[in-house]
Amino acid sequence: MQRVMKTAGLAAVLSAGLALSAQAADLKIALITSKTGPLEAYAKQTETGFMMGLEYMTKGTMTWQGRKIVVITKDDQFKPDLAKSMLEQAYADDNVDLAVGTTGSGGALAMLPVAEEHKKILIVEPAVADAITGEKWNRYIFRTGRNSSQDAIAGAAAFPASGEVSVATLAQDYAFGRDGVKAMKDALAQIRPNVKIVFEEYAPQQTTDFTASAQRMFDALKDKPGKRVIAVIWAGPHPLPKIADLKPERFNIEIAPGGNILPVMKGYKPYPGMEGAVYYYHDFPKNPINDWFVAEHKKRNNGNPPDFFTAGGFAAASAALTAVQKAGGTNTEKLITAMEGMVFDTPKGTMLFRKEDHQALQQMYHFKVKKDGKDDNDLLELVQTIQESGMPLPIRNKR
């Protein structure tokens, strides 16, 4: 009887140990976004896309390589110090295997040294500043989101290849805006030397009155020969309608607004023929993943298609799971080896993490605003797909 009791006790201990082991085997991912603040819409899209990406990759099981996927979501409120502390908490207290985030470039930049300190992977999505995979980069950082240079090169490709073009830029006065203008200058010098930036206007992130900014840009452009363009680099509510109300056409000035989320681009409808470049638009990519993504998103969201940052969230989920599969687990060094040069599938098609700086190389799209769309989300027509091979993306880190 005593032997039976000892055997039963040992079995209970082993059973408890196995249960703890199974719990420890969960694949834990932190998703940090800015669901409070000016970029709330972007953050919500990222989370939706991330969860749909996990669902697609796992065929709805939410398990991967025999491990249950646990997503721990955190709201950094668009505050860099909070983004930093939340990533520290995710690595140290939540013991996540890797992290994804965040929405704002300031927050992402604050997070980079935390990943290095804890020696764990951070997939940056969707923050854009070049410095993230540039001078502030470290080997634990991979980015699925496009960077300022990719935006700029795609935007440059949307300008005419010949004839004199003068540009005034309007950007937000923080890392995203200033990086974007610098990247645009570099891109134009490379692929559109006929296009010159003649004036830079920076405005606070929360600006709502653009009268003074517009007047300075009008004054800088109105006497320039050739084509005159205001190029806008802006996150959040877009200044296009307010600038357009000031009638830049009086001076033969056009506006190039850049791509954005659908609620913002609906404000482009009164300006058919206006051109720019965009990271993602639901009707442009033609592949099975995007077909599923669009159909399923419409089914779950009253007929509304997936958007700019929904696609980005999906891409981050695909990158994370592809990396774990290729590495055979979540050992950081094995993940880094697996992810450098890794190709992974997304709604935009395949992406590839460049070995030198871990930036995802990806196609972009040159669009024109439609004159008569069939509904509120039928806004853009494709002018050209700008392939990765057509974007001479600089390496900006110090590796």
TrEMBL record:
Residues 1-24 form the signal peptide. Gene3D superfamilies: 3.40.50.2300. CDD domains: PBP1_SBP-like. It comes from the Bacteria. Pfam families: Peripla_BP_6. The keyword Transport applies. GO terms for biological process: amino acid transport. Residues 27-374 form the Leucine-binding protein domain. InterPro entries: BCAA_transport, Leu-bd, Peripla_BP_I. Keywords: Amino-acid transport, Signal, Transport. PANTHER family: LEUCINE-SPECIFIC-BINDING PROTEIN, PERIPLASMIC BINDING PROTEIN OF ABC TRANSPORTER FOR NATURAL AMINO ACIDS. Belongs to the leucine-binding protein family. This is ABC transporter substrate-binding protein. It comes from Ferrovibrio terrae.
